[in-house]
Amino acid sequence: MPELVTSQGLLLLTALLAYLLGSIPFGILVTRAMGLGDLRQIGSGNIGATNVLRTGNKGAAMATLLLDGGKGAAAVLLARGLVGEDAAQVAGLASFLGHLYPVWLGFRGGKGVATFIGVLLALDWLVGVAVCVTWLLGAVITRTSSIAALVAAAASGLFVLALTDGSPLVLTLILTILIYVRHSENLKRIKAGTEPKIGAKKA
């Protein structure tokens, strides 16, 4: 973690604003705007890009992916530019929590993969790119989004150690643990051999 030099009050304000940004449910907004129905009633009911893809609309899925990743990156970059590096990491965690547990949806949000990658890209672009490549390779090999996400998340801490001074490590490990917590049902389906492949229309 970077040295905490910002006042507690400003860090709390940063966390609140980043949480609110992260809690914007872009998957629901995009599918509603494109007339694709209520995303929570489609596929797995998840609000992320993988479930948006189950509508059959690749454009909507890509828009959701970019917006969910973008809100995490924006929170980090704005906090870094306006406050400092300690605030950037606080904002990264808060925006991620906002996506996972959005107040607007009764604290039932997404699984955080796109936002996770967006946060890492903003914290250190080399780490973010390495995680993206790992996810893509995992997705191509397994054709299973959750497996690709879990492998990429597990590798993220190693990338931080290899490519940075180590200051983002604690945050990265916290985000990784949360990714695994949110994928607990996926892990059960993976073990049972029932996890759907990318593009499948059923949960």
| Unreliable stretches | none
What form results from the Cα inertia axes? Answer: globular
Oligomeric state of the chains present here: single chain
Let me know the largest β-sheet: none
Q: What's the count of strands?
A: 0
Give me the strand/helix succession.
Answer: HHHHHHHHHH
Compute the number of structural domains: 1
Describe this structure as you would to a colleague.
The chain is mainly alpha-helical. It has one domain (8-192). The chain contains 10 helices and no strands. It has helices at residues 8-22, 26-33, 49-53, 58-82, 85-100, 113-123, 125-142, 145-163, 169-182, 184-192. α1 (8-22) runs parallel beside α5 (85-100), α5 (85-100) packs antiparallel against α6 and α6 packs antiparallel against α7. The longest helix is centred in the middle third of the chain and has 25 residues, at 58-82. The radius of gyration is 16 Å and the shape is globular. The model has no long low-confidence stretch (mean pLDDT 92).
